[in-house]
Amino acid sequence: MNFLPLAQAPSLQFFQAPGGSQQAYIMALSAIFVGLLLMVAMFNTPIKLRRPIIILLTFLAGGFYVLSWLWPLPLGLDASQKPLNSVEAVSLTLQDGTTVMGKILQVIQGILLFLGVYSVLRVHAGRFLKRQKDWAFSLVLLCSMMAMITVGYGEYIDNVRSAGVHANAESWTFWQYGKDFLFDGMLQNMDAAMFSIIAFFILSAAYRAFRIRSIESTILLASALIMILALMGLAEYGSGQVIERITGGDPSHFANNFSLTSIRLWIRDTLQAPSIRALEWGIFIGGLAMGIRLWLSLERSGGGS
Amino acid sequence: MGEQYYDTGWISILLVLLFSAFVLFNIRRAIASKGSGKEVYIRRIAGLNAIEEAIGRATEMGRPVLMVPGIGGLNAISMQALNIFGHVTKTAARFATPIRLCCADAAVYTVAQEIISETYQREGLSERFDQDSVRFISDRQFAFATGVSGTIHREKVAAAFFLGEFFAESLIFAETANSVGAIQVAGSTQNTQTPFFIAACDYVLISDEFYAASAYLSRQPVLVGSLVGQDWIKMTVMGMILFGSLASTFEVVSGLKTQERDGTQLVDGERKSISDTWFYHQLKPDAPKPEEIPQREPADGVTEEGGGA
């Protein structure tokens, strides 16, 4: 029985004002006003009431996603079709709501990023102004950050105003050259340099890990050696030749199980894959329990009791 | 509900609801049994026992303790990492050991600030809390790796805790901390990074040990009950694997054949493969066939051809 009202999914045009339009500005200002109002209201709420309010909000926000996941998905329904019944209508509304919730989260992330930038400024500007140890590094960081923000924002504004005429390098202005130099020329390469360092770290970590100190590390060393050798063409070829001589080319011979490739595949499929799946199960189950505790506000963070 | 809703993996939903019920039931059980002398036993986890040792060492050396909650966003994983860091901070605050908590996500940074500040307040040591000890470094992976490595080198941290979501930067952190002689306790939910941590760190929390940590450290009934619920889930999953393997094996090897209707006669079809078995189908339902998709009217303002009005 359909006990939910038969309803068409609401149109979300209200939340999707075109960028730069008067409606978008009104919406943005209204959102800031409502946000400030809520903030003031929250500050003036008695401390005893704050926790229940936060618990309620957490429950509602989490409940929305739980309901979105639990509610049956209609087969093949898209935005150009009318839902058949109220179950499909609710599902469509929930799917649309997920997009809106995602945007709300993006806004919150954007606001929080300001706090992050403030943290960077406070730590490094303080160190520079007080001339603490390594203040020069902080100065470099602050200058780099300001340069990147200025050039990035300038390039964005320039691209919006010129409606993409700077797509070719011949028509680049200062902003495009600046972005190319700072982002593609420096930042990306420094990222790549840090990534490359991992190769050397792997070597030093492997040296320590593969030293024979216990039974476990010996097993680890043996397994690693087999995996490495089996992936080396020459060693694999040599092992294949030896096995072929023993078996005389008979594919059903028992000795075929002892070729390097067979041992490697056995280690990978029989030992490694199930172990990783078991570990992943543990992580998923732990995540589920943690998610429930957070959704229902059952625990206090930071070791509180 | 229309028939089309039934074949979209309902058994997975049922299982998640059952698993959730296990967790909630055991939390309730643990709260009810608190103080009755029947507390649940949790096995020893070496990595967590090392926390006090690491902080003690940092205190003796007068160097900071570093904590990194990974590079993931604000989710259950980073919240769990921050929970563990709350416990680390509690001990560090008592010994007046300086801490450094480096974040790659602004939301995680904000929550971390709150948790660490609250931990100091709860211990009655608010004056020892340094606001700059919790830092946002960068949300770019390798810029963050560079920033944390710089902090490790400059401040010569004595203990480092890497808990949360780590990716390629895990080894950079672990090796840099090793190079300054820091005790390292690490744990990642990314299985691809766990081997790197095992190779480079002193203690590693593997898999769900990461989630068991806060229960182990605090022994709160809610967390301990949740841990027991997780064990119930694991036992159920093990039972399902056993039952599924046996049932699928039986179905495949016993010579059972599908039957197909040929006119008025039922004839044997092809022998079943694993993907034809009942159990496989319950967990991995087929995609709907085109004829199963119901016909619907176009929405208001949409023409039959699909264009807008």
Distance between the termini of chain A: 46 Å
Please outline the major beta sheet of chain A.
Answer: none
State which percent range the strand residues of chain B make up: 5-15%
The count of β-strands of chain A is 0
Strand order of the largest sheet of chain B: 3-2-1-4-5-6
The CATH topology assignment of the domain at 46-218 in chain B is: Rossmann fold
Number of helices of chain B: 10
**What is the structural class of chain B?**
alpha/beta
Task: Please work out how many helical segments of chain A DSSP would assign.
Answer: 8
Major β-sheet annotation of chain B: 6 strands, parallel
Count of strand segments of chain B: 8
Alpha-carbon Rg of chain A, integer: 30 Å
Q: Structural class, from helix and strand content of chain A? A: mainly alpha
State Rg of chain B: 26 Å
| Inertia-based shape of chain B | elongated
Biggest interface, chains and residues, is: A-B, 72 and 94 residues
- Give the uncertain stretches of chain B in residue-range form: none
Net shape of chain A: extended
What is the helix/strand order of chain B?
A: HHEHEHEHEHEHEHHEEH
CATH class (first level) name of the domain at 46-218 in chain B: Alpha Beta
